[in-house]
Amino acid sequence: MTTQTTADKTVAAPAPNTPSGLIGIPANLGRALATGGSVLAVVSTFLAWTWTSAFPGDLTVYGYPGGLQVLVLVGGALATLFCLASYGVRGLGWLTPAGADAAVKYAVLGTFATAWYTVVSISVDLGGVVNLEPGGYLVAAATLIALIGALALPFERPEPDPIDPEAGGWEQFKHDAGHALAVLRAAFASGSPRPVRTLPSYAEILIIVAVLAVGLVVFTYGIGTEYDELFVGFLITAGFGFSALNRSGLIAHASQISARHQNITVCGAFVAAALFPFTQTDDQYATLGVYILIFATVALGLNIVVGLAGLLDLGYVAFLGVGAYAAALVSGSPSSPFGVHFPFWAAVLVGALASLVFGVLIGAPTLRLRGDYLAIVTLGFGEIFRIAVNNTDGTSGPDITNGSNGIASIPDLNILGFDLGVAHDIGGFTIGRFANYFFLMLLITAVVVLVFRRSGDSRIGRAWVAIREDETAALAMGINGFRVKLIAFAVGATLAGLAGTVQAHVTYTVTPEQYLFAGTTPPNSAFLLAAVVLGGMGTIAGPLIGAALLFLIPNKLQFLGDYQLLAFGLALVLLMRFRPEGLIPNRRRQLEFHEEADAPTVLSKTGA
């Protein structure tokens, strides 16, 4: 008797770790949709998006992108390049050393967000979607198609954590929500970039020059945005574009190349910054530039105290005020009771030394405290300074600072016969008053960067890092903690006073209200600390970029009115939640927040 067996025709379920996308369509189709949608988004920018020029940017022209169309064009072109690289097109492999899929998702998402923000703004401002032209409908459909395709790209899904079978409804909900968030993060994650191969020195220097040139173009475009809608679109495009470049691995490769030529990179960065006034047709945006440099220089000085030494200083803006008031008192201002007029070099020394003395006087009795106690004492010093200069008006106290009226009519600087208060013609370019001060502050910023680099690489810099990491262990190893912290406090105060001497002449007037703990406009102690944390503690580029963002964004978001600080605070909370180490982190701090990252072969001391 024979037994007949039939094969099991049940289809096997896919393995749980099989890569799949967020949207259940085939990966090949999704990649094609992402590529085609990105190409159509680029094409749509050459069509009219609306029929009237009432919407800012004049999006009525065929064949010539303008306003927000330029941002969609850039985002669409970047997404197209990443899509083509994901197909393995010859010559584009260098674009995605860490893989293409995550970069495609960020680039497509940024293009979609900018395009739909524009379409919605047109519809709201002009009174409905009937005001859209074919180009507007095309860009909305194309970017939506591209987004659907990008979300279909496969990725490794994480395994869900085990849960108690007897868990209640709330525990089950938290478990499911946590797993969904983990899946979403995995969908936009990328692999580790492959090591960048060594190129000839001239080629690597050309790459550094190209990166700096792109940075100058982006900054000049952002600071020169003429209306609110364009600046919001710029923030969207720049944010998602940077994320796409980071996920592709290009940022990591650029960082490795610049690390091989640190001196050339730093010099090139200052040359690129010096070219900024020559890109402007008037002095309007040079004003923002010089204030950004003042804010960034003070933030870099605070970075020595907070980032390297680990001392939480909540009254740091007072040292900026000490330098500004000291320089104003010897500037020859008619409001000064001293009636003296020092030359610039002497005023700089007076401001820096005054801040140094105050730093030592405040630090000596208080630096034996730690943590929150030190923060409270420094916060009190900041408020004492503001109240003191407010009361030395001749009525409540001696007549020194003119009270709440401040010291006004501070004359412009004159350095070796060069009057910074008047315009000068250089090579056919007219350099206005604020551009003159921009160059002066750029020189002072270079001095501060040099001090930061040399001190961070020195024996005292290593002692600062040891105190920051574990003060008890540092003391046990023989480090004089009090002396080391006092030096950090004094150096940081001196650098802030140095910037304050220039601020007094730029603003013409110094008043107590300029040096608050917190306010709607920087510089103040809260914004300075936020700039250090946002940019990346212990690095050079971090506080500079953080200060630029914290000064530029509130200046451009004034149309939000009373909701400005709400939106700004929400953005900071989200950034600290998802990138607590800052925009440009020190490698050691990055490992502290992301333990799953690979340990570097060499730990940077200053993250330069």
TrEMBL record:
TM ranges: 32-51, 71-92, 104-124, 136-155, 202-224, 230-250, 262-279, 285-307, 314-332, 344-364, 371-389, 434-452, 486-506, 526-553, 560-578
Membrane topology note: Multi-pass membrane protein
UniProt cross-references to InterPro entries, sorted A to Z: ABC_transp_permease (IPR001851), LivM-like (IPR043428)
Pfam families (UniProt xref): BPD_transp_2
Origin: domain of life: Bacteria
Entry annotated with the keyword Oxidoreductase: no
Cell location: Cell membrane
Keywords per UniProt: Cell membrane, Membrane, Transmembrane, Transmembrane helix
PANTHER family in UniProt: HIGH-AFFINITY BRANCHED-CHAIN AMINO ACID TRANSPORT PROTEIN BRAE, HIGH-AFFINITY BRANCHED-CHAIN AMINO ACID TRANSPORT SYSTEM PERMEASE
Protein name in the entry: Branched-chain amino acid ABC transporter permease
Organism listed in the record: Streptomyces prasinosporus
